[in-house]
Write a structure and sequence with these properties.
Layout (H helix, E strand, L loop, with lengths): L3 H12 L5 E6 L5 E6 L1 H10 L1 E4 L13 E6 L5 E3 L10 E9 L10 H14 L14
Parallel strand pairs: 1-6
Antiparallel strand pairs: 1-2, 3-4, 4-6, 5-6
């Protein structure tokens, strides 16, 4: 079942003739990782996610439990405008939640870790404010 935000993403991809979508997530250390998909693959990605080998990502999984799934978050959709003189047309990106094959959240997904921290703070009556910060490590 496609929700309104997913419909918006799919319609925008078609209207703007976007050639590929980058599905972004970070490893446990905050390093950006990316998987690119064609727009035709995105509707099934919303339903089933995109499988990948988690053992290749720092802190995600051991070799014997390496299957993981990137679930695109349509609320994070953004179109990239090509830079002047660029060779390709427009592309887009979405951040992903990382799930286990059974659909449960991955304990190593930084987005899930943040949600758990926000929930714990809220349960104790705290408001929790955070923002991204680039590192010079």
């Amino acid at each position: 079942m496609v929700d309104r935000q997913q419909e918006f993403v799919l319609r925008t991809l078609e209207e703007r003739d976007i050639r590929f979508v980058r599905l972004w997530f970070t490893d446990i250390l905050g390093t950006l990782k990316s998987v690119s998909v064609a727009p035709a693959e995105l509707e099934s990605a919303f339903e089933e996610g995109i499988g990948f080998d988690g053992s290749a990502i720092e802190g995600f999984a051991r070799v014997y439990e390496s299957d993981m799934v990137a679930m695109p978050d349509p609320s994070s959709f953004q179109v990239f405008v090509p830079f002047e003189g660029g060779l390709h047309g427009e592309s887009a990106r979405m951040f992903c939640d990382i799930k286990m094959p059974d659909g449960s959240p991955s304990w190593a997904d930084p987005r899930h870790v943040l949600r758990r921290a926000l929930d714990r703070a809220s349960e104790k009556g705290f408001s929790f404010y955070t923002h991204p910060r680039s590192s010079s490590i």
